[in-house]
Write a sequence for this structure.
């Protein structure tokens, strides 16, 4: 069986797509060959039965033309195509593969319902996402298959539960992350907060500056650190050093780091309803309520180390049941009718 997997980048250092390599590897274990089509590829990330073609070009039309040429070259013996996160790939692939009845599966988990996404949903054979609420359009083609977490990358760490509660937030400095609410909540607690993430756009750089001003205005400079991006390889160590992850991403975009923290037996405080099947009520809060988040932080701080550890172990078990990379790969192939 031959599968084409289309993504923006296959690179362990990519700020948003570093985990894609584990998904490709899981698919490669289930088929004879995976051909990765991407704007950029780090060859070391490819399993033995994988090849790569890049379509990088100086302009969007040129990239589209190079992508279609690369896909056309792979049509012989092709059994399925997976378009990973970027709906335009499904739109461009459909005219080549759908007339040949080659399944086209779109993986998408985000809140943004663009015109391109609507076209991609129509063009695809099937759509897969973490949860029905993590795909922003109604669709009879949609299957919820969980998130693809490579459990071997994350392990439970001993945390003594002593001292000030150490909160961690990971992700881009985007207004959609709701970090201003997190900072305001901290003012009503004794906890500390460390944020790690890139600021990749002018909007994100401006938002980080706003957060720095807010930290100063609230007198939290000694308890809040706004740091830069870290390599994916450093994430497990950061999770091991924290007492809890806090995540306030807007609804519909289930941050993968929440599942990674849970796989590390780290308690998570989150506002997104997509995490209802993962987090107990005492670990969830209203997105725009710093007061409720502060209450949740104080409640977590009152637990001793053994109680927090048990919370973390429950979270890992839920990831093991519903959100492993193996389950994800099985779900993709089932949606394509290839398993």
């Amino acid at each position: 069986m031959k599968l084409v997997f289309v993504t923006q980048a296959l690179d362990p250092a990519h700020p948003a797509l570093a985990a894609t390599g584990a998904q490709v590897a899981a698919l490669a274990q289930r088929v004879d060959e995976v051909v990765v089509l991407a704007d950029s590829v780090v060859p070391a990330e490819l399993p033995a039965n994988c090849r790569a073609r890049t379509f990088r070009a100086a302009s969007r039309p040129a990239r589209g033309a190079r992508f279609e040429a690369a896909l056309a070259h792979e049509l012989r013996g092709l059994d399925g195509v997976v378009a990973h996160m970027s709906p335009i790939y499904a739109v461009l692939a459909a005219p080549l593969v759908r007339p040949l009845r080659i399944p086209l599966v779109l993986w998408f988990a985000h809140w943004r319902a663009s015109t391109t996404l609507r076209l991609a949903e129509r063009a695809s054979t099937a759509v897969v996402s973490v949860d029905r609420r993590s795909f922003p359009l109604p669709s009879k083609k949609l299957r919820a298959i969980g998130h693809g977490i490579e459990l071997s990358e994350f392990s439970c760490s001993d945390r003594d539960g002593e001292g000030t509660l150490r909160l961690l937030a990971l992700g881009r400095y985007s207004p959609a992350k709701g970090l201003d609410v997190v900072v305001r909540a901290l003012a009503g607690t004794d906890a500390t907060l460390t944020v790690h993430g890139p600021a990749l756009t002018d909007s994100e750089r401006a938002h980080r500056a706003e957060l720095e001003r807010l930290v100063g205005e609230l007198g939290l400079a000694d308890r809040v650190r706004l740091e830069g991006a870290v390599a994916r390889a450093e994430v497990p160590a950061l999770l091991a050093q924290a007492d809890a992850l806090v995540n306030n991403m807007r609804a519909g975009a289930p941050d993968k780091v929440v599942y990674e923290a849970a796989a590390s037996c780290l308690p998570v405080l989150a506002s997104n309803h997509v995490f209802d099947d993962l987090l107990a009520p005492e670990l969830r809060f209203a997105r725009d309520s710093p007061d409720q988040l502060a209450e949740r932080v104080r409640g977590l701080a009152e637990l001793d180390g053994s109680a927090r550890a048990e919370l973390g172990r429950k979270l890992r078990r839920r990831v093991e049941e519903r959100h492993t990379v193996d389950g994800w790969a099985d779900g993709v192939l089932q949606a394509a009718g290839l398993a």
